[in-house]
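Q: Here's a chain of 381 amino acids. Please give me its 3D structure as tokens.
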Amino acid sequence: MMRNWILPEYISDVLPAEARQIESMRRRMLDQFALYGYEQVEPPLVEYVESLLTQHDAALDLKTFKLVDELSGRQMGLRADITPQVARIDSHILNRQGVTRLCYTGSVLCTRPDGLLSTRQPRQIGAEIYGCASLAADVEIIELMFASLAEAGVMDVTLEVGHIGLFTALADAANFQGEVRQLAFNALKQKDSPTLKALTEDVDAKLAQGLLALANCYGDLGVLQRAREVLPNLAAVTTALNTLEQLHTALSARGIAVRFDLAELPGSYYHTGLVFNAYAKGFTNAVSRGGRYDSVGEKFGRSRPATGFSIDLRSLTSVPFPHRKAGILAPASDDVALLQLIRSLREQGETVIVDLGVVQSEVQVDRTLQQKEGVWQVLSL
């Protein structure tokens, strides 16, 4: 007999201390976004599945739970990523002509976890810029990402940056299509040189050398010079490397150090340019991910330049978080003077717990309200 309190694999409850930390981080990050001019949107948890998937994104399709709408009979999906929803809002509801800064927060649900220690129900928060193709938008997004992580107490962050345009240029030149292209993408992402070598046996030697070299191109700014020497002389390759070099200059001016990984490829296929991951000590996975996805709105009929990042708030709860200040235990009573004092203390920011059967060891209280000589007073326990 199945125990009815057992949750599905990689699904868990969020208990009080963790829930308080998540909510605190959410509020602080949203306030930070507002300081940069980002407006919050709240897409629905469920939509018709066509709206939840970007074009040609098999990975996102695989991660999306699907069900049948009892009202329309159409297939619906539980969102596994909020970015396509925000792109729909930008394209069809707001329909602005100028640059639009949007942010969001909410749960997503995935058919499978991203890693052994990941949840299938992340609490996602993120910010996105639509309508700006300039590198300045990417710089602002990365700067905001660092400021947001700082709000969560994550300070020692390492930024790794890549550019999907490098793989795209080499794969196009090698005429990789369909399954072969996906196999090469996965092999490069995993730095699987033997598989890459097998896939490029019949490819021009210079292209094969370039794809194999990408897997080992990671490190400081010198990586870009090495890449210029070993990669084929393709216009798209030069453009991507120039963009990475300009990004390094812009972020250095803001005190943000950059490491490059030219095999850094995203989990979703809608990215089109710069991609980046933020890593921090004490975390096994990236604490934030982002990049440029200029064609994400194409299926909605309005393809606009776009860049952004997202953070799983639940993944950050291992960061030390201050305990809630101990509260005051008050007796249950209709005494007007007591009720007024309780109201006044709460207005001052104090936590006042009315004793309806409290076990003191189960709650955080260090004071109590007691009446002495006809006056209610706050006394230490």
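Q: Can you summarize the key feature?
A: The CA atoms of residues 36 and 140 lie 9 Å apart.
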